[in-house]
């Protein structure tokens, strides 16, 4: 279970929010090992659980280099009630403000995930902004792309 969830770590996006128009961005991120893991194995033999972790990401937004830090919590979903195998929430601290990302992820392999999410601006340059994000992760690293829509 730990490898599967640890693969999610790198899903937090990078974005600079100086303009109100739509902005595209790309990112690469790396996380630390989980600081907390809870869960076990269900009677059907499938693992379940949740974990917390943090990390950093670097990227580019319209020619500007970006570096952020993040903390996330992930939780597996029951096999009989899932659209995604894993759900995740992350808080991101950027030099110009903070935002939250909410994710749905599909497991592609033992340590590989494909995720889609929504960005919700909280403070500073991100206040009242929304966006979308995509990511693919392997192990504790990920790459992705996204866009602040407004």
Key traits:
63% strand; Porin; mainly beta; 8-stranded antiparallel beta barrel; disordered N terminus; 150 residues
What is the H/E string? HEEEEEEEEE
Tell me the helix content: under 10%
Structural class: mainly beta
What number of domains?
A: 1
CATH class: Mainly Beta
What's the count of strands? 9
Describe the largest sheet: 8 strands, antiparallel, barrel
User: Any idea what the radius of gyration is?
Assistant: 15 Å
Order of strands, widest sheet: 1-3-4-5-6-7-8-9
The span between the termini is 37 Å
Overall geometry comes to: elongated
Helices, by number, come to 1
- The residue-averaged pLDDT reads 83
Strand content: over 45%
Unreliable segments of 5+ consecutive residues = 1-19
CATH architecture: Beta Barrel
The fold-level CATH name is Porin
Brief characterization of the structure:
The chain has about 150 residues and is mainly β. Helix content is about 5%, strand content about 65%. The chain has a single domain (about 1-150), classed as Porin (Beta Barrel), CATH 2.40.160.
Care to describe what's here?
By secondary structure, the chain is mainly beta. The chain has one domain: Porin (Beta Barrel). Helix content is 3%, strand content 63%. The chain has 1 helix and 9 strands; from the N terminus they run H-E-E-E-E-E-E-E-E-E. Strands 1-3-4-5-6-7-8-9 form an 8-stranded antiparallel beta barrel. A hairpin with a 2-residue loop joins strand 3 and strand 4. The longest helix is centred in the N-terminal third of the chain and has 5 residues, at 2-6. The protein starts with a helix and ends with a strand. The model is unreliable at 1-19 (pLDDT under 50).
